[in-house]
């Protein structure tokens, strides 16, 4: 079974839980736009099973005409306990990432692989790395998660990501066929200054937020934070999410979203927890027009202004 969902909240967006969409997708594509896709999945502690799911979703996205497919944080593996992901961690030139690079090449599609367990020099700790692969299967950029999820979730678990993860140091933006991408991972979403830098210093047009939000925090904050980041940076936001039960102890909120620079949701799966892809058309001239009509880049005050004003 598959379903296509197009409604007031899905302007230009299509979602399908599996298979090829019923409607003729290309007939509705705007002339100067580029199609993107975002995946939703429930990764488990089985590398081969997750790779098979990703492979299927990559083929779906490519046949829907998407130039870029974004996967959620921890797409290749979600362990049952913290140590598990350190054990499966590999360098970016290891066998796991090369499988994903081959899939990109075979389907001629760019991939955003958010939250790969990257092995570093410290055997006790990994980097939570967002990797961009081009349509020839080449890794062209990577960003390691800067803000680590050390949080006592009210009514939920205590998380201490820093106990097994090394924090990244560099902000990363990279050009792609769908515009200039600003890279981030999950909990970074709560730190707006990073997205301000991505927009105003690194000239991002499309912000990528692969995530595995908790159910409690997702319900309260997910959509609001994502739409706020889109509105205040005047960027498209693509937020691929882990969804549902990974194991007995772990569950993710889901609700993969694509949002335009006006804050409108243009892509959302019909079911918050299903596995599948959603596609939407990115129109960079719309980014320009929003920025031209509301010129916040020129109107914002430098830090020095605030210091002087408060004296
Ligand atoms: O470790 C893995 O397997 C994948 N990584 C995660 O799940 C990470 C670190 S524990 N989760 C988050 O950042 C949740 C953020 C969140 O839920 C919020 O900001 O509210």
UniProtKB/TrEMBL annotation:
What Gene Ontology terms describe what this protein does at the molecular function level?
A: hydrolase activity, acting on carbon-nitrogen (but not peptide) bonds, in linear amides
Against Pfam families, the record matches this protein to: CN_hydrolase (PF00795)
CN hydrolase domain residues: 34-284
Alphabetically sorted, this entry's keywords are: Hydrolase
Question: Would the keyword Hydrolase turn up in this protein's UniProt record?
Answer: yes
Q: What SUPFAM superfamilies is this protein classified in?
A: Carbon-nitrogen hydrolase
Q: Which InterPro entries match?
A: C-N_Hydrolase, C-N_Hydrolase_sf, Nit1/2_C-N_Hydrolase
The protein here is known as: CN hydrolase domain-containing protein
């Amino acid at each position: 079974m598959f379903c296509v969902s197009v409604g007031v909240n899905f302007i230009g967006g299509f979602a399908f839980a599996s298979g090829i969409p019923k409607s003729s997708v290309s007939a509705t594509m705007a002339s100067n736009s580029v199609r993107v896709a975002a995946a939703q999945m429930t990764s488990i502690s089985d590398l081969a099973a997750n790779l098979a799911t990703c492979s299927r979703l990559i083929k779906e996205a490519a046949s829907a005409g998407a130039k870029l497919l974004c996967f959620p944080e921890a797409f290749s593996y979600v362990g049952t306990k913290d140590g598990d992901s350190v054990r499966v961690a590999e360098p970016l030139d290891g066998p796991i990432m090369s499988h994903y690079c081959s899939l990109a090449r075979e389907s001629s599609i760019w991939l955003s692989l958010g939250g790969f367990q990257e092995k570093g020099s410290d055997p006790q700790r990994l980097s939570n790395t967002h990797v961009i692969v081009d349509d020839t299967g080449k890794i062209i950029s990577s960003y390691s998660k800067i803000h680590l999820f050390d949080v006592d979730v009210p009514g939920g678990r205590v998380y201490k990501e820093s106990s097994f993860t090394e924090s990244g140091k560099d902000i990363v933006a990279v050009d792609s066929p769908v515009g200039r991408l600003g890279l981030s991972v999950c909990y970074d979403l709560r730190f707006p200054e990073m997205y301000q830098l991505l927009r105003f210093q690194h000239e991002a047009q499309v912000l990528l937020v692969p995530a595995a939000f908790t159910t409690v925090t997702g319900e309260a904050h997910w959509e609001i934070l994502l739409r706020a980041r889109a509105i205040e940076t005047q960027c498209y936001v693509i937020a691929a999410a882990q969804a549902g039960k990974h194991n007995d102890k772990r569950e993710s909120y889901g609700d993969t979203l694509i949002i335009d620079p006006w804050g409108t949701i243009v892509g959302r799966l019909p079911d918050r927890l299903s596995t599948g892809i959603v596609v939407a058309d990115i129109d960079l001239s719309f980014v320009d027009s929003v920025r031209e009509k509301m010129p916040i880049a020129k109107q914002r005050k430098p830090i020095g202004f605030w210091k002087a004003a408060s004296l």
